[in-house]
Design brief:
- This is Ferritin-like domain-containing protein.
- It holds the Pfam family DUF455.
- This protein is mostly helical.
- The chain has one domain: Ferritin (Up-down Bundle).
- It contains ten helices and two strands; from the N terminus they run ααβααβαααααα.
- It has a two-stranded parallel ribbon.
- The longest helix has 31 residues.
- The radius of gyration is 18 Å and the shape is globular.
């Protein structure tokens, strides 16, 4: 197996627990020096998925709110588990779709690390759901994250601009309030789990920022201006406050990027 082949293997694994295990296995082999970058068949347009959860359009999803009763907290944790499952595939798709032998090794080190941590996040959220008497797949989920992957499938800079630097960065904005809601509801276990994920995600946004700047400058582009141009082209929404300037700055993203 090669690193790119392992990435395609993860993307082609439908069972969520097996996908997370395959992600850990590939990451460990890469860190041990057992995988060359190599080559592989093209990644699938969409990763393999289990029969459940039912996937709905984002506008069809019921509204979620943290805190409150156990059912609402379970629904929120289920939604976050779905995001993390997609995040496993997004990291490996980035490697499989855009990785070549010409890429610097630290590029692969970073995204293998991200994929490994996203798999752990999914496992932790799945375990917490089980403690609450639920399981991943019990509730519907939406496919919005993979729509962003499809839209940016031909452009590495666009992928970096939209996935880590918009979608994951938004998680940095909203998670502290979610943690506080969980604490107010007396769910300290879920609050601690989300805080742990939040701290890891700062590193994921930092990886996106680091490599976006690297490849933008390599293409002769001003990173800030090019990021804003890519948002106008590829991002359907509008960046709205509140912004977590502290966490974004810790990830290397200055406020001038997103406050204009």
């Amino acid at each position: 197996m090669t690193l790119l082949g392992s990435a395609v293997e993860v993307l082609s694994t439908a069972d969520p627990a097996a996908k997370a295990t395959a992600s850990h296995r590939a990451a460990a082999a890469w860190r041990a020096g057992d995988l060359a970058i190599g080559a592989a068949p093209p990644p699938p347009d969409r990763p393999a998925r289990p029969e459940r959860p039912l996937l709905l359009a984002p506008k069809e999803m019921p509204k979620r709110k943290a805190g409150g009763n156990a059912a609402k907290r379970t629904a929120l944790l289920h939604a976050l588990a779905h995001i993390e499952l997609n995040a496993i595939d997004l990291a490996w798709d980035l490697i499989a779709r855009f990785g070549t032998e010409r890429m610097p090794r630290p590029f692969f080190d970073d995204w293998v690390m991200v994929a490994d941590e996203e798999a752990l996040h999914f496992e932790l959220l799945s375990a917490r759901l089980q403690e609450l008497g639920a399981a991943y797949g019990d509730l519907p989920a939406h496919d919005g994250l993979w729509e962003a992957a499809i839209t940016t499938s031909q452009d590495l800079l666009a992928r970096l601009a939209i996935v880590p630097l918009v979608l994951e960065a938004r998680g940095l904005d909203v998670t502290p309030a979610t943690v506080a809601d969980m604490q107010r509801a007396g769910d300290d276990a879920s609050a601690a789990l989300l805080d742990r994920i939040y701290r890891d995600e700062i590193g994921h946004v930092a990886a996106g920022m680091r490599w976006f700047e690297h490849f933008a400058r390599g293409a002769g582009e001003d990173p800030q201006l090019h990021w804003q141009a890519l948002l106008r082209r590829y991002f359907r929404g509008v960046l709205k406050p509140p912004f977590n300037d502290t966490a974004r700055a810790a990830a290397g993203m200055p406020s001038t990027f997103y406050r204009q």
